[in-house]
Amino acid sequence: MNATIEDLEAVLRGVQDPEYPVSVLDMGLIRGLAVEGHTARVRLTYTSMGCPCKEMIADDVRDALLGVAGIERVEVEEVFEPWTHGNLTRRARRTLAELGVT
Question: pTM higher than 0.70, yes or no?
């Protein structure tokens, strides 16, 4: 069985940002997903270049994707594309607003 982008997105909705109860997908940290055979490729950015949780986030993403049926390998490419609040999904904005984060 081949994994799909939708399969990857579904598990990434369960990977939360270490600072807020928002998924890395809804935070806008995932900048690209691809499936090539049994390999998942992820382009990942951070809210800041000096993010102290970079390794933790990358490991969490990798571990989650290895749990997808058909995925045997995960390649994470760190890209430093500027992140802004505009990258947040509507769901993330609502959650952050409920927490008093603007």
Answer: yes
